[in-house]
Amino acid sequence: MMRKVTILFTVQCLALTVWVSLPQNYQLPQDWLLNSKSFKSKITTDKVNNRLTLTNGLVSRTFSIEPNGATVDFRNLMTGESLLRAVEPEAVVWINGQRYEVGGLQGQSNHAFLREDWINNLSGDPLSFQLKSYKKTGIKKRFEWNRTRHHDQSLAWPARGTAVQFTYELDAETELKESDFRQVTFSNNIENGFVDAWTISKTDKHPRANFNNEGKSGEIYTPANSSVLAEKQFKKFCNYLAVTLNTGTDKSTTYAPAVAVKVKNKFMKFNLQTANNHFALEFDGKVQKKKNSFVKAGMDFTFITKIDKETVSFYAAQGQNESLIFSVKLAGARSFQQVKIGKMGIEGKFEDGSEVGEIGRCRFISVIGKGNVDRRALNSFKNKRKDAKGVTVDIFYEIYDGIPVIGKRVEVKNSSGKDINVDRFILEQLAFVEYESSVETRKDRVFNTPNVAVETDYSMGGFSPNNSMRKSYRWKHDPRYNTQVHWPRCELCMLEVAPEFGPDQTVKNNATFETYNSWLVVYDSYDRERKGLTYKKMMRTLAPWVTENPIMYHCTSSNPKFVKEKIDECAATGFELLIMSFGSGFNYESDDPAYIAKWKEVVDYGKSKGVEVGGYSLLASRRISPAEDNCHYENGKVGASPFGNCPNLVAPWAQNYFKKLQNFMKTAGLCALENDGSYPGAQCSKNRPGTAQKGWNSSRWAQFQEIKKHYRKCRELGVFLNAPDWYFMNGANKTGMGYREVNWSLPRAEQLLHTRQNIYDGTWIKAPSMGWMFIPLTVYHGGGKAATVEPLNENLMHYEGMLASNLLLGTQFSCRGPRLYDTENTKRTVKKWTDLYKKHRAILESDLLHLRRADGKDIDYMLHVNPNLKEKAFLAVFNPLKRAVKKTISVPLYYAGLYDETTVTDMNGKSKVYKLNRSQKMQLNINIPAGGIQYFIFTN
Known about the structure:
By secondary structure, this protein is an alpha+beta fold. It is 16% helix and 34% strand. The protein has an eight-stranded parallel β-sheet. Strands 11, 12, 29, 30, 33, 37 and 38 form a seven-stranded antiparallel β-sheet that branches. Helix 7 packs parallel to helix 8. The radius of gyration is 33 Å and the shape is elongated.
């Protein structure tokens, strides 16, 4: 739908009214993706309602301050939507084996939405960590960034914004309820079917009468005055029963949904008479008592039956509202003998009434039985709370200028007087509004998740965030969301940011444990392009070193004389970084002073020519020794890594490895590390004394801290870092754009198409500078002469096509081979493209719009856009066909910040002014020769 909006352009902030295509529910007067300068972060407080809000005009997160700290609103201000439907703890930590919630509020009866008038009636859990104070803080640098090479100068480090720190502690005087420590004798989630020896009886008055209606386990669909019941004998001591149900549309009195218990060979039936909304107790063959019900129709509630001191008590609970309804003195009563649930006659008899009445449905959700108080558990909990006395949990929230992102981390400070163990933690637990409304489940059905993205700096083992962060967060269902459309309540609408397991870390007295960082990215649209632009802007803001994008050459020999010759070639052709490639013989792990000195002389020579020098080193996918490698917990054998073998990063070999690399970097001045096989998340079952690894549960956390420290040190030293995993938030500059290595053995023309396909596909979530590509100049994975660029002058058209396909799309490549040129003509061709790239570097390193993917059937083209530059757009067009193509294409210039008209300059320097239509698109005539390459530059 076309909408009329006011968008602010130019330094003078001239307001111009234009027609653009924005999300239908977009609420802001300007598009933040075009001009985000006015969206400044701030913290506001509401002392009347005890609230604090982080906001930047794009997204906001509101916290209650009393009676405990809790997120009570999370709002997408770009669309006006509230993303939150229920209150959860702000964090969860396990200390010395005991689970503690941090903050949060209780008592919300319906988890589908959170009404404002409910919030003040919610209460804090006295057993949780309580909010004691809060204060405004600044954005903290995660580590130092040594800006030694070209990058986007407009980016700040740390990112501009503001932050708040909430401090939580346990209340020492909290009284423990003994009833919370009853021993569970059985538990059954009926919505997943009956288990553990239940007997089902059902009337014959209706063919569908059962505890399963239309595939919905627990639902009874039967006439009002008929019986459908499930019964169970008790083999263990049980004096507490909780049955959760919903009366639905049932309209009964005697046969209303009920719980019947047998005590001292007598049956008592407790039900909610749905015909007249009364609680009723039947005993000794008749109705003994009645009381008006407080249960809200259509809502889940719980019948609770307890035996204490020869008294049988019947309670009803809905939300936080638990009330004693009836009680009966019964001499000798200690334990239940039997329970029946469902619809039944007097005293739980399986019988039907004389007139069955109209059909209705009710639903039984769960039943749980408990015995006496577990004194050992109660005393253990008391002792563990003593262990946590003096422990403080600080939660930090960050909000940034100009991006719809909120960051978070947790610190556990130990001032208990003794060491503690942080077994597990949940950094973030948010009950989001579900993405979709799905009634049923089908085989192989995949639920869509809410329209937000999660980034963490605990990522490993993948070129993409979805793969690399599967170990740091997950989407789960919310069993407390009883009113969701999906019958088994399995919609993926609960975000949990937590390690897959661990960290299982000892925290010394007066020491602090830090979780990893998480960032929640809120989207204003479901459009893939717009979501990608949002994500990439977040990455550049929070990891600005990803804009470092040197032109790279992979040298295949480590002979110093040869390397100096290649440095000269790099300088002559505009290449900026020489990396000693895999197979070159370069030894990054050497600590020989003479070897390092030899390379310092080479590095210094490179610096004199304006060329940085670095090297390749293999880490993860290698075998060291059984003692030094990760080993599996089941059989103790090595090979526990996702890629086979992997050295254990806390073991002596790896510790020396990191020291040697850093010593080489500092001493010789090496400026780059291509770390092949960075840590992929391997686990190890060994206890390694003197390290943070105590065994399997702590091994991933302990090893990740080592690779994190190493990569952050590289960033501090100004070392350019290629890593084949998503380590951007810990200092990596690039990961793979995404390609299949064996495809470089295909015929050259196919390699060209694959190159542009890979860049097209990879840049949906990566900025052009975030992913590397490849140009193998010699044979790579086979393919022979048809796949090889050498001799370069004989295959110059292909070489030029590979250079242009990468550089015009802003993506750097590993140009690997024995030389960059073999003739003066080849040299001029290479330099032509690097010069062109550097001339238009700012726009070429800007985001790409995905206009037409390469397929070999027609021309393919992509558009760089940046409304903040003089060159606001750059269109690269490629023709893979053996014939010329003449056609008109539509060029969308909205994200370039262009409106009304634009000046288009072609690759020959000819300029022409074009009018834009109401959608800020223009029609451009293309006339491109067979196998040709063209580009166009768009300005105001």
